[in-house]
Design a protein that fits this description.
Layout (H helix, E strand, L loop, with lengths): L3 E4 L2 E4 L4 E7 L8 E7 L6 E7 L4 E3 L7 E6 L4 E6 L8 E9 L1 E4 L3 E6 L1
Parallel strand pairs: 2-11
Antiparallel strand pairs: 1-3, 3-8, 4-5, 4-9, 5-6, 7-8, 9-10, 9-11
């Protein structure tokens, strides 16, 4: 069983930055794939970015060049650095990991004002 806990959401103006954190109860290098999804009000949950335990990354086109996923093995934590934020980035962001089964964090709200 893997537990994931997100933090770092908040309110920021357009063009600003936030860093989201996802703390895992197991070594992040033991988790096959991790990443982030987001869900805006009235919208379906959408894929944002993933990273494999080998370090391969995949970003949705809308965040390429603005968002960066990273890991800190010593802290068992995954980060999402979000720069040049846009109002359309407003959503609840969910940490996700696949370790046989899929595991989800509780979500953290990101609000970008115009």
């Amino acid at each position: 069983q893997v537990q994931l806990v997100e933090s770092g959401g908040g309110l920021v103006q357009a063009g600003g930055s936030l860093r989201l954190s996802c703390s895992a109860s197991a070594s992040i290098f033991s988790i096959n794939v991790m990443g982030w999804y987001r869900q805006a009000p009235g919208k379906q949950r959408e894929f944002v970015v993933s990273i494999t335990k080998g370090g391969s990354t995949n970003y949705v086109d809308s965040v390429k060049g603005r968002f960066t996923i990273s890991r800190d093995s010593a802290k068992n934590t995954m980060y999402l650095q979000m720069n040049s934020l846009k109002p359309e980035d407003t959503a609840v962001y969910y940490c996700w990991g696949r370790y046989g089964l899929d595991y989800w964090g509780q979500g953290t709200q990101v609000t970008v004002s115009s």
